[in-house]
Amino acid sequence: MTDTDQTGSTSPLAGLGRMIAVSSGKGGVGKSTLTANLALALAGQGLRVGVVDADLYGPSIPGMLGIPGDQPPAMSPAKKVIPAQAHGVKVISMAMLSGDDKPAILRGPMVTKYLQMFITQVDWGTLDVLLLDLPPGTGDIQLTLAQAFPLSGALVVSTPQDVSLKIVRRGLRMLEQVNVPILGVVENMSGFTCPSCGEVTHIFHQGGGQKIADSLNVPFLGSIPLDPAVVDGGDAGRPLILDAPDSPAAQAYRAVAAAIGGKEQDGPGLAVPFDWQVAQGSGQPAGAAAIEGGDPERPVALEYDTSGLHIRWQDGGEQVIDPRDLRLACQCAACRDEMSGQRLLDPASVALDIQPTRIWSVGNYAIGVAFSDGHSSGIYTFPALRAMKQVEAEDV
């Protein structure tokens, strides 16, 4: 990620480091507890860590870190929200903006507004890692984050029960569809360690996390045992990793932190986020070189001239897409029936000389395109672009 675009303006994401989502398909798997302890474990590695409590409807991170919920955050001179700090970690949460008796009753557009604010309108300073504690499921919040921000990866949390593992599979597939790299699977509540004798009892089965990771070909980052001290520490605002650093669970948290602390998305790609004003010639994303054995559905360079949109892919493939073909391929609800897939756009209504006026990044998995006819609601995924009818670059 670059700090400035080609016009010299500073990106609102500059300095935020790697953005890592902590996700789960279902609730009650200990995702927020993992996030709180993982944040402290990463800070213990010497990293500068921030946490966005993205569970707007059920925020719990401030309580787990001992941050008072009745003190609204202050504003910086630059009119940005100053995040709370606890144990060396910076935090923003809906719990800081509303009391326990004031639930967040939000429709989709407001959810998007708050998420944008939590990331771009907070005075984070310079971070190495920004953890995003997601709510369970595959709804508005997950899609908003995947579309609006270039996530470096996601950590998926499960428990060993079969029902949890089935839902984890759906969540993993959703992340794959929006091109968020899966850093790994963590199996939480994998066994209960008796505080008296130390014997481990696998009350929720055993090995399910490893099995689901193997079946989906993603890393398995470890199992975290149940420990009564986890609950006590969370209620007291002192995560287990502080109060019982030598416990098996604390050691497991540190192992997960060590496993993800240096992981990046493999190989070069476009510098994201970007907002390329094609008509003005500003903000074109910086490109990268192709590599042998690269990803055929990851672009490394975008250019535009009178022949069309030029795309170079990580595997070395190159294509040129005619702007009118690009406009006709739009899959938005105004151009295609969402149920039948039937085209609603009349090709005769699209001018032969139509041009893209603006191209911007959509998360890690797509681009948005605005055209000279005023249409701007289409999202083009990388696989869809690669599959389009194209004029090979050497034939242009």
UniProtKB/TrEMBL annotation:
SUPFAM superfamilies: P-loop containing nucleoside triphosphate hydrolases (SSF52540). ATP binds at G25, K26, G27, G28, V29, G30, K31, S32. Residues 302-386 form the Gamma-butyrobetaine hydroxylase-like N-terminal domain. It comes from the Bacteria. InterPro entries: GBBH-like_N (IPR010376), GBBH-like_N_sf (IPR038492), Mrp-like_CS (IPR000808), Mrp/NBP35_ATP-bd (IPR019591), NUBPL-like (IPR044304), P-loop_NTPase (IPR027417), YlxH/NBP35 (IPR033756). GO terms for molecular function: 4 iron, 4 sulfur cluster binding; ATP binding; ATP hydrolysis activity; ATP-dependent FeS chaperone activity; metal ion binding. Homodimer. This is Iron-sulfur cluster carrier protein. It comes from Roseovarius gahaiensis.
